[in-house]
Description:
This protein has one domain. The chain is 57% helix and 14% strand. The protein has 4 helices and 4 strands. The model has no long low-confidence stretch (mean pLDDT 87).
Amino acid sequence: xxxxxxxxxxxxxxxxxxxxxxxxxxxxxxxxxxxxxxxxxxxxxxxxxxxxxxxxxxxxxxxxxxxxxxxxxxxxxxxxxxxxxxxxxxxxxxxxxxxxxxxxxxxxxxxxxxxxxxxxxxxxxxxxxxxxxxxxxxxxxxxxxxxxxxxxxxxxxxxxxxxxxxx
Length: 167
């Protein structure tokens, strides 16, 4: 597969991820103010706006406009880094490219929200008894899956037997 074909696949995954994220967030903004059970006791649709970082961390200190700009600039810098890393993958590194495309799509989806809305739209709430997981969205899920895939790829690379060089 040529570099151009690999780039097309990367950008297709990125664009599909952003489209699913933005479409689901547009739908989520129509939710009522109270949680809507999907699976009672385990999963709700619950609209929230996150001014902080991932999974609502640092929300108390991230409400300022300057902080929003800094978070957006960090994410845009990370997007550039992910794009460079993806462009340096080999043909055989399909899993790594997929992971990087999911990370880029998730990061871009949240940056779009942060720049357009001033906060990231979250709407998926998982819970078990009294434990509530941090509320999240499709972009957060893509980021998480991408990071897990990168770890799997790195672990599988580290455990592969190394071929000895011919001497």
